[in-house]
């Protein structure tokens, strides 16, 4: 599992996932996103965006963070957020903000909920829009201090696998039903 910058070819997939998850796609640019990829199958499993609001001063916002349902609870989102924070710091942003209705999720990484009055003006306006369109529960968060990620999330990410819905149950075989696959004949036997 790894996280990489999005490429132009990821645009359709990103838009589909953003729409299906009901996430913010305002001023969409695929180059603003990072994508978590399962290196064994090359399957895209999560994503997030570092949106730069130009002004005086410029402000960066983490937004559009999503993980496919079968890949959740495995550290994928944590690593997407980490990659976005690293990109923000590489671009020398001191403040990293997010507007979210899930502030407890970001709190585990060092983000703190902040009052609307403390937000930069551009984010105050975005917060009002998101509260009207997404949820009244959307609040502003800011990374205070260093980003932190648990060892558990790191280990889970290293060993992440899609949840196939079986809950870890093994797949039933012919033998489980008393059928000998060496001797059984089938209606459409090809003779092989």
Polypeptide structure, described:
Helices cover about 25% and strands about 25% of the residues. The protein has one domain: Aminopeptidase (3-Layer(aba) Sandwich). The longest helix has 15 residues. A 7-stranded mixed β-sheet has the order 1-2-3-4-5-7-6, sandwiched between helices. The protein is α+β, with helices and mostly antiparallel strands. The two termini are about 40 Å apart.
Report the top-level CATH class: Alpha Beta
* CATH topology (fold) name: Aminopeptidase
- How would a crystallographer describe the biggest sheet? 7 strands, mixed
How many distinct helices? 5
Helix fraction?
25-40%
Number of domains: 1
Level-2 CATH architecture: 3-Layer(aba) Sandwich
Instruction: Give Rg in angstroms.
Output: 21 Å
Low-confidence stretches: 166-170
Class by helix and strand content?
alpha+beta
Coarse shape: elongated
**Percent of residues in beta strands?**
15-25%
